[in-house]
Amino acid sequence: MSSFIVKKSPPLSGSIKINGSKNSALPIIASSILTDEECILENVPPLSDVKIMLKILEDIGKTVKFDEEKHIVKISGEILPDYEIDAEKSSKIRASFMFAGPILARTGNARIPFPGGCSIGLRPVDLHLKGFSLMGAEISTGHGMTVIKSSGLSGSFIYLDFPSVGATENIIMAAALAKGTTVIENAAEEPEISDLCAFINKMGGCVKGSGTKNIVIKGVKKLHGASHSIIPDRIEAGTFMAAAAVTGGKITLENIVPQHLQPIVFKLREAGMNIEGFKNKMTAEASEEIFPFNLKTMPFPGFPTDMQSMMMSLMSVAKGTSIITETIFENRFMNALELKKMGADIRIESRCAIINGVKNLTGTSVKACDLRSGAALIVSALAAEGETEITDIYHIERGYFEIDKRLGSLGALIKKIP
Ligand code: EPZ
């Protein structure tokens, strides 16, 4: 199993181009099932999660070409009537359940193995299924599979008990070809939802209200192929800024959307960073010291839960006490144990983490528990005295393309041990 060896690094400096968003690419790849015509997707990050989704598309009959150098994906063709989604592949990622909505919309018979994903919580799909059944689908589960059947979906009024990102995306994809109009109330407002809706509208769909809590989807008879460039990854951008903060560096991020980064920028400014955004660029400069701050993860436009672990790394070496309240996932503090091995002073009380900043962390061997906590260990290791070995880095590579090489280009002392 590969690992990263990370040493205390000099202040990061230089420019980095932010890649396309994993959490936008995955649902948009699934939505290509809504048409047989060619879909051309640009700025698609060559991540392991993306490659698994594309492999599943091929398994069910689509023709897929991925130019990993240019980050361009071309998808076309029909899905096989007797398609079968490989359970082993779909168990590797959470996003495999995003195939349910588009396959149901096209075939009326979605057979989806139970999804996998991080260990950050139970991650049920009850809200996805509530939407499908309100549109007239019949749902059954068994043999590790969810089967969703419908002789033709009808538009419906759907209230989401929680603004679930995945449920909002799955329902939008199912409703795009339904008879009539679907209204999603209390929808997720994340930028990745707006990106999916922009793509569906380019395919000839009729989705209004994305980026708000109230999304209206008018079903159409047919969708055609389209081209689209995936939005930049706001979490990758935040991760690089956190790395600059802990090393006392100054970096420039290229290919970003400033408004997608606002919640992250506001908190990094509270930590002392000087951040300036202009058009699609942003400079982030660390202050002499990291100030303590509090944060509460919330659905967008609140602070993103996916940045929580990286901020815990920052707080671990801040000059004072910080508090994190994690409201989205029930098990997203696993990183605290690893940071404590490095000398961090962290106490967990239910959904709260109390972090007393220490002068410095010390390098040791730690383990990535999930995608974001793995990235947070890199952030901590860049500032820790000595050398840190991070194992189980396959978690990190699910969501960060060549993070060692790209951080290395900014001066980070990080190398991958195969
Ligand atoms: C998406 O996951 C992202 N993944 C996650 O990013 C992100 O953390 C999350 O949204 C929240 O922003 C992708 O887009 C591939 P949710 P998703 O449905 O859709 C509960 C990363 O690191 N819930 O908004 O699974 C659920 O238990 C990953 O890139 C239900 O109760 O998130 C959780 O507590 C991690 N019933 C909360 O909602 C449901 O039917 C948020 O889940 C669905 C969700």
Tell me briefly what this model is.
The chain is an alpha+beta fold and 418 residues long.
Task: Give the arrangement of secondary structure elements.
Elements: E1 3-7, E2 13-17, H1 22-31, E3 39-42, H2 48-59, E4 63-67, E5 72-76, H3 87-90, H4 100-107, E6 109-113, H5 126-134, E7 138-142, E8 145-149, E9 157-159, H6 165-175, E10 181-185, H7 191-202, E11 207-208, E12 214-218, E13 227-229, H8 234-247, E14 250-254, H9 258-270, E15 274-278, E16 281-285, E17 295-296, H10 308-316, E18 321-325, H11 335-341, E19 345-349, E20 352-356, E21 365-367, H12 371-383, E22 387-391, H13 394-397, H14 403-408, E23 413-417
Parallel strand pairs: 2-14, 3-13, 9-10, 17-18, 21-22
Antiparallel strand pairs: 1-22, 1-23, 3-5, 4-5, 6-8, 7-8, 10-12, 11-12, 14-16, 15-16, 18-20, 19-20
Helix pairs in contact: 1-2, 1-7, 4-6, 5-6, 6-7, 8-9, 8-10, 8-12, 10-12
Bound molecules: ligand EPZ.
Ligand EPZ binds next to helix 1, helix 5, helix 6 and helix 12.
